[in-house]
């Protein structure tokens, strides 16, 4: 391969680069010039074509205007005189210069009247079929026709027309002038026009017909099909401008198109592309020639310049070759140029000087290294490749006691260490032997100084006879060629370190085997060590965590503030202790009890953190299970309390109605047998009420929610009332009841008198119950008085049946009595003594019992009471004085106007009757919303509101809150009526703003007392009570039994067979589509509406005695939740019960006999009674009370039939508002006031 000099290479490279750059520049210049030239050519050609097109447009318009002007001189009479017409055209010789094919005069029918030049064969011809004639007639304007061939000579012509009108604007004819496209008129001259040498013009219309063309044989030839001429296709599509095209012969052209404004013809100019772009091709050759000249000049100049520039470099190379291999430092080369070659020569001179300086330094360094080894504190010796000792330093002399003179040159270095011949590490490295290491050293391996070396360590005896742990390290020394020329071996006494390592190893074993997790991190939290238990707990291997952050096991359980506080603690140098919720490798969370301790260096800085952690997941799980169990127990207690509260409300509500009705019934005249029945019913009701109270008390005690009140009371009054109640239970038994009260027992005490009475009454009742004859004694003794407190002992002694020791052990267990025979004989729930014992414990005492079978029993307990202050005793006496006469009187509420808010119709009736018997005026409301309406009525003034707590639409609590929001009712007493006996219910009532509370069943004396507590004495008399007018009705007219309907229960509630019949039929009419309504609600997902429908049917059916329907609705109501499987079955059951009830309603309707209204002449006789009944009916309608239907049954026979019919319809539909208006009309008709 030929060898080229650097100058040649640079010259060639320079030429290539210059050629490339110039070529790119020439190419870019040519492309730019080409684009500019083509655009300029296109614009010039387009301007030329546009100029010609505008000129033709102007001439066409001028021609048209010329003919129109001439047509203005034509008289309409000429169309009827051909001779005169021809003479007229002959007088227009100048026009023939424009219209070179002649002039025609056509009449209105298109017949040629005359022509110039005269042509007899044309006169009389009809041109009505020509397009120009038809278009002129149609438009009434001058027209320039499309080219066409003449009729006789077949010449291509165009026709210009001008219509001529009569004075009354009728078309008389038209003047036509034709132009021959083959003649040299301004259109024909286009074919001869040229631009450049070969450029030409042609004219084409919208139908692709050539009008003007250099090739006259193509005129009016349709030989330009779509796609054959690109410029025409584009022009017809709306293009105007210049583009490159190819003609039908394949010649490239530059074509321009311009549309004429006059008639839409297209003027096209074509120029051969070679002719149009000829200057551009010439410029291209000029540029290429200039490029070649520039390349030749560049090559020559580069060659000359490189020879001059490389001359110093050639001299430098010759000097380098001359000094190669010299030991002495040569003379420097002198090159005076200031360019890169001069710089290179100066650098080379410095390099040569530095190389020789380094050789001297290397020799000096070798001597220094030998001195360094000799004077090193590390015992060292060196063997050459022949195993001879060449260095034995002073430290080794001191360690072994062998002088260097004895060992230098020797091949037996082992004599300094061992009693018998054996190889040292240096020998093994030289021989590349590893076999003897296991026998010679306790530990061995690769050298820590050199990967090719060896190290060994073990216990050896040194000069002074001590056993020391020595470490030997041997490594080869190689020359520049990589050959081993010697081996250096060092000895170190590491006895102290070895002892420390053994201690550390023991500690490490302890850490690795300890059953807790140990982690060591640096100050940044990067893990440096974990013990094996870490892998057992977390699942991460040692190599997976070392070098990673300790947050690797962190979970998202703790907040960032938790870890922020942790880091603040340990970075402050304090120990952090706590529990962490971390994450195992498999993602499982676990709990660790951790202790993190910072390790500090000598300067007090933190070097490491040590975390000792113990897995406490199982302990935490056990604690969590315990917490859950406690939570479940608490939830069960809350659920039981809520259940008992609800049951209290649900049970006390009917008990209230029952006891109230029994009370009202007692006020009537009864036979002795009826009184006996009544007493038994009342006793049973009271017994049921006591059982409910016992269960509720036991529940509250069990839940720890029973709290004793602390109020002043009179002990004598409590004991007297207690004995009075107990005496009533003795009845006919030969049992003497005695009360003994110690002389020092205080009269007034501070405590819970109600609970004290409950305990004593239970003990007395049990004593009387289990004593057939003999005595029962209650004794009260004062045990001590200290610090304003008195400790009393209460003892109840009887001479009854007594108890065995076994029975006494079970005495205070809930729901148990002495034995099963006791329960069967004496009855009871077994809760009384349990509750009493718990109450006594709350009072700070305990019930003690002493008894023998057949000898009677003695129960005693001790309770402590605080003494009331003088003010508290005076207040108690004053309250007793005020309440005593009022509660005893039957008119204690006289003058009061009370709003009774109760949703249950029966409870409404009971409450109203009780309050009216005590002199009050009662207004009824069915829910909280109605109560607010009654309060807002004009002129309403109530002294108190009795408010039921649980009601539909708006409950009592919400209604009370809204009452308290109105300042006008801020002082209006609101008293709650609730069947719940829990203290939480009382607290809710107080929070809502209620003043007090009475418990259902309502006790009239308690109710009157509560009212008097909040309502001041009313001075005006109460309104007179409406005398009872309800007629006694029998069950006559009703069947004895009907399917699905308990007629006896219905009559007991409604007290009127007619009312029963009417309400049952009304229920059927109102609920015929009940199942459709509830199915629609369930289909729409409106469970709230479905529950409301079922709840309404349940309540109304129960009041009507339709117990099966009410029961089915009650079972369906809790199932109205999403996707309950029992829902469909419950719906089918309710549907069957409703169909059964509807059938019975139809039977009642068939058996009903019409009751005609009273004759008109009988109305005056009963007018007073009618007025009373109308007044009562108006009040009931205003309160939306269903008892209005019963009053109407009494009123209906007393009013005229027509008026009765107007009122009966709204009442049957339960539209009480419309019924009120009808009642007003009835009152106006009878001239009575409501």
UniProtKB/TrEMBL annotation:
The chain crosses the membrane at residues 6-33, 285-306. Gene3D superfamilies: 1.10.287.130, 3.40.50.2300, 6.10.340.10, Histidine kinase-like ATPase, C-terminal domain (3.30.565.10), HPT domain (1.20.120.160), PAS domain (3.30.450.20). Its EC number is 2.7.13.3. Residues 307-360 form the HAMP domain. Residues 1056-1145 form the HPt domain. Keywords: ATP-binding, Cell membrane, Kinase, Membrane, Nucleotide-binding, Phosphoprotein, Transferase, Transmembrane, Transmembrane helix, Two-component regulatory system. The modification 4-aspartylphosphate is found at residue 948. Residues 454-506, 576-628 form the PAC domain. It catalyses: ATP + protein L-histidine = ADP + protein N-phospho-L-histidine. Pfam families: dCache_1, HAMP, HATPase_c, HisKA, Hpt, PAS_4, PAS_9, Response_reg. Residues 646-867 form the Histidine kinase domain. The keyword Transmembrane applies. GO terms for molecular function: ATP binding; phosphorelay sensor kinase activity. At low DSF concentrations, interacts with RpfF. This is Sensory/regulatory protein RpfC. It comes from Geomonas limicola.
């Amino acid at each position: 391969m030929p060898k080229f000099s650097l100058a040649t290479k640079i010259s060639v490279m320079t030429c290539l680069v210059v050629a490339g750059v110039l070529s790119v520049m020439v190419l870019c210049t040519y492309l730019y010039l080409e684009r500019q030239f083509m655009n300029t050519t296109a614009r010039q050609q387009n301007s030329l074509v546009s100029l010609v097109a505008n000129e033709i447009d102007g001439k066409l318009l001028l021609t048209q205007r010329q003919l129109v002007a001439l047509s203005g001189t034509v008289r309409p009479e000429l169309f009827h005189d051909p001779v005169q017409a021809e003479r007229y055209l002959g007088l227009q010789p100048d026009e023939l210069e424009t219209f070179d094919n002649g002039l025609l005069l056509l009449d209105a029918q298109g017949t040629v009247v005359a022509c110039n030049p005269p042509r007899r064969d044309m006169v009389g011809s009809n041109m009505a079929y020509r397009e120009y004639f038809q278009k002129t007639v149609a438009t009434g304007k001058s027209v320039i026709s499309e080219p066409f061939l003449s009729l006789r000579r077949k010449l291509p012509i165009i026709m210009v027309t001008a219509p001529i009108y009569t004075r009354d604007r009728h078309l008389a004819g038209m003047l036509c002038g034709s132009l021959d496209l083959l003649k040299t008129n301004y259109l024909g001259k286009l074919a001869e026009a040229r631009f450049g040498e070969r450029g030409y013009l042609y004219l084409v219309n919208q139908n692709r017909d050539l009008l003007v063309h250099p090739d006259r044989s193509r005129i009016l030839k349709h030989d330009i099909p779509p796609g054959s001429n690109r410029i025409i296709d584009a022009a017809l599509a709306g293009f105007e401008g210049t583009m490159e095209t190819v003609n039908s012969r394949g010649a490239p052209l530059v074509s321009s198109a311009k549309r004429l404004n006059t008639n839409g013809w297209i003027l096209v100019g074509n120029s051969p592309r070679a002719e149009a772009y000829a200057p551009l091709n010439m410029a291209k050759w000029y540029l290429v020639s200039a490029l070649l000249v520039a390349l030749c000049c560049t090559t020559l100049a580069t060659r000359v310049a490189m020879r001059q520039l490389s001359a110093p470099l050639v001299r430098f190379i010759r000097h380098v070759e001359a000094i190669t291999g010299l030991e002495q430092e040569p003379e420097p080369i002198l090159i005076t140029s200031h360019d890169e070659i001069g710089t290179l020569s100066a650098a080379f001179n410095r390099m040569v000087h530095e190389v020789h300086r380094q050789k001297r330094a290397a020799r000096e360094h070798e001597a220094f290294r030998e001195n360094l080894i000799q004077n090193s504190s590390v015992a060292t010796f060196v063997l050459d490749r022949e195993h001879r000792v060449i260095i034995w330093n002073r430290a080794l002399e001191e360690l072994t006691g062998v002088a260097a003179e004895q060992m230098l040159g020797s091949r037996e270095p082992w004599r300094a260490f061992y009693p018998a011949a054996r190889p040292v590490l240096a020998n093994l490295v030289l021989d590349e032997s590893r076999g003897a290491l296991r026998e010679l050293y306790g530990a061995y391996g690769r050298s820590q100084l050199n990967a090719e070396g060896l190290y060994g360590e073990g216990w050896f005896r040194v000069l002074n006879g001590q056993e020391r742990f020595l470490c030997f390290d041997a490594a080869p020394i190689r020359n520049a060629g990589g050959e081993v020329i010697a081996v250096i071996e060092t000895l170190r006494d590491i006895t102290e370190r070895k002892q420390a390592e053994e201690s550390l190893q023991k500690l490490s074993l302890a850490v690795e085997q300890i059953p807790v997790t140990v982690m060591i991190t640096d100050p940044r939290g990067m893990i440096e060590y974990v013990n094996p238990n870490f892998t057992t707990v977390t699942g991460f291997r040692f190599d997976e965590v070392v070098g990673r952050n300790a947050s690797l096991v962190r979970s998202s359980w703790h907040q960032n503030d938790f870890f922020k506080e942790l880091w603040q603690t340990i970075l402050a140098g304090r120990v952090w202790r706590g529990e962490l919720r971390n994450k195992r490798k498999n993602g499982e969370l676990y709990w660790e009890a951790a202790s993190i301790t910072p390790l500090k260096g000598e300067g007090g800085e933190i070097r490491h953190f040590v975390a000792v952690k113990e897995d406490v997941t199982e302990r935490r799980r056990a604690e969590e299970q315990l917490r859950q169990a406690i939570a479940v127990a608490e939830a069960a207690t809350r659920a039981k309390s809520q259940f008992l509260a609800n049951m209290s409300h649900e049970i006390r509500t009917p008990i209230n109605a029952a006891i109230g009705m029994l009370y009202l019934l007692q006020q009537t005249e009864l036979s002795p047998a009826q009184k006996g029945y009544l007493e038994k019913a009342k006793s049973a009701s009271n017994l049921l009420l006591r059982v409910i109270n016992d269960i509720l008390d036991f529940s509250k005690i069990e839940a720890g929610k029973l709290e004793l009140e602390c109020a002043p009371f009179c002990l004598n009054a409590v004991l007297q009332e207690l004995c009075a109640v107990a005496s009533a239970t003795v009845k006919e038994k030969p049992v003497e009841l005695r009360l003994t009260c110690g002389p020092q027992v205080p009269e007034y005490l501070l405590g819970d008198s109600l609970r004290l009475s409950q305990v004593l009454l239970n003990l007395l009742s049990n004593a009387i119950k289990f004593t057939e004859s003999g005595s029962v004694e209650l004794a009260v003794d004062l045990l001590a008085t200290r610090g304003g407190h008195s400790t009393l002992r209460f003892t109840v002694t009887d001479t009854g049946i007594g108890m065995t020791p076994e029975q006494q052990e079970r005495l205070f267990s809930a729901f148990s009595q002495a034995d099963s025979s006791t329960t069967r004989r004496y009855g009871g729930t077994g809760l009384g003594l349990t509750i009493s014992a718990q109450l006594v414990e709350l009072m700070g005492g305990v019930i003690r019992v002493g008894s023998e079978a057949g000898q009677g029993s003695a129960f005693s307990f001790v309770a402590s009471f605080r003494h009331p202050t003088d003010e508290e005793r005076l207040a108690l006496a004053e309250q007793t004085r005020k309440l005593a006469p009022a509660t005893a009187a039957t008119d204690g509420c006289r003058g009061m106007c009370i709003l009774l808010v109760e949703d249950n119709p029966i409870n409404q009736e009971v409450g109203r009757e009780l309050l009216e018997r005590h002199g009050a005026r009662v207004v009824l409301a069915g829910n909280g919303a109605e109560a607010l309406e009654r309060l807002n009525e004009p002129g309403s003034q109530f002294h108190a509101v009795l408010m039921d707590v649980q009601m539909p639409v708006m409950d009592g609590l919400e209604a009370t809150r809204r009452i308290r929001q109105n300042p006008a009712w801020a002082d209006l007493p609101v008293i709650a009526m609730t069947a719940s006996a829990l203290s939480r219910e009382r607290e809710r009532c107080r929070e809502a703003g209620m003043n007090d509370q009475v418990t259902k069943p309502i006790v009239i004396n308690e109710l009157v007392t509560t009212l008097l507590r909040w309502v001041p004495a009313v001075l005006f008399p109460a309104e007179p009570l409406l005398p009872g007018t309800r007629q006694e009705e029998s069950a006559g007219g009703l069947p004895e039994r009907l399917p699905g309907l308990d007629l006896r229960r219905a009559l007991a509630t409604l007290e009127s067979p007619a009312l029963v019949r009417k309400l049952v039929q009304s229920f059927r009419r109102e609920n015929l589509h009940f199942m459709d309504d509830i199915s629609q609600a369930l289909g729409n997902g409106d469970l709230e509406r479905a529950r409301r429908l079922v709840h309404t049917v349940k309540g109304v059916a129960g009041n009507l005695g339709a117990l099966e329907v009410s029961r089915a609705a009650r079972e369906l109501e809790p199932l109205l939740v999403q996707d309950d499987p029992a829902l469909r079955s419950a719906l089918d059951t309710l549907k069957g019960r409703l169909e059964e009830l509807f059938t019975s309603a139809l039977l009642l309707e068939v058996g009903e006999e019409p009751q005609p209204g009273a004759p008109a002449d009988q109305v005056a006789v009963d007018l007073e009674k009618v007025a009373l009944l109308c007044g009562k009916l108006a009040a009931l309608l205003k309160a939306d009370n269903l008892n209005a239907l019963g009053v109407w049954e009494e009123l209906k026979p007393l009013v005229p039939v027509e008026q009765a019919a107007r009122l009966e319809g709204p009442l049957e539909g339960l539209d009480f508002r419309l019924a009120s208006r009808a009642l007003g009309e009835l009152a106006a008709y009878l001239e009575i006031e409501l």
